[in-house]
Design a protein that fits this description.
about 230 residues; nine-stranded antiparallel β-sheet; two-stranded antiparallel sheet; 2 domains; about 40% strand; 2 helices; alpha+beta; elongated; 11 strands
Length: about 230
């Protein structure tokens, strides 16, 4: 005779296993769908900064000490003032989300002088992402709308001994017509998807109309909150 109690127990166990398997599969599918939706949402907020176009309108920039800079599209400016060095860059956001600039770091790049060919690969420090504690906080909120142009500005001032030393180093580099490397730290409007982009400010030729207006390009991006694209 069949042992109906045993058969019932086995049937219950099989049913439970099938239900558990189905639940596990449904959970994995739901998690996968949630991750896809999250990535799609982040993609709609993701900014990416590059130099603006030369045909973009010029930016008129005011500084806290009432210094003014007129910055043409697709260019950078370097200016030596009394006790200050002013740096600006014309930017365009080619991402789909608002870019909020959080901080910056600028350093001379002595491997490039106007009379010599740039050899960036000989500078391994430029190939590595700088530490976040090396960045200066942005003195004012700077936003770059998606698909539109705006600007970045930063200044070296003689506030303390360290600032005075860095200002003098930057001023000497500008006088020697050395390339300047600028790192920008920015993220999306929600404070996430932080990115560091490395820009190069290159002096123009001797025939330039304005020696303070330099050429600008971007050559690397690092993602802080997700995997890098390389």
């Amino acid at each position: 005779m069949a042992d109906w109690a045993t058969i019932a127990e086995v049937s219950t166990a099989v049913g439970t296993l099938v239900l558990a398997t189905a639940t596990f599969g449904a959970t994995r599918s739901a998690n996968r769908a949630a991750r896809v939706a999250e990535r799609a949402f982040e993609a709609r907020l993701r900014p990416l900064l590059v130099p603006s176009r030369t045909e973009d309108p010029a930016e008129k920039i005011m500084w806290g000490d009432q210094h003014w800079t007129r910055l043409p599209g697709g260019r950078a400016s370097v200016e030596l003032g009394e006790g200050a060095v002013y740096l600006t860059m014309a930017l365009r956001n080619v991402g789909s989300g608002m870019a909020v600039i959080h901080g910056w770091r600028a350093t001379p790049s002595p491997g490039y002088v106007l009379e010599r060919q740039p050899e960036l690969l000989q500078h391994p420090e430029l190939q590595e992402r700088p530490d976040l504690d090396e960045f200066r906080a942005q003195g004012r909120d700077l936003y770059v709308p998606p698909g539109d142009s705006s600007f970045w500005q930063g200044a070296f001032r003689d506030r303390d001994e360290r600032d005075e030393r860095e200002r003098e180093e930057m001023a000497d580099a500008i006088r020697r017509r050395e390339m300047i490397t600028v790192f920008l730290l920015y993220g999306d409007y929600e404070g996430g998807q932080r990115t560091i982009s490395r820009f190069a400010l290159v002096p123009p030729g001797e025939q330039a109309d304005d020696p303070n207006i330099w050429i600008i390009n971007v050559n690397r991006h690092w993602n802080l909150d997700r995997s890098d694209p390389r």
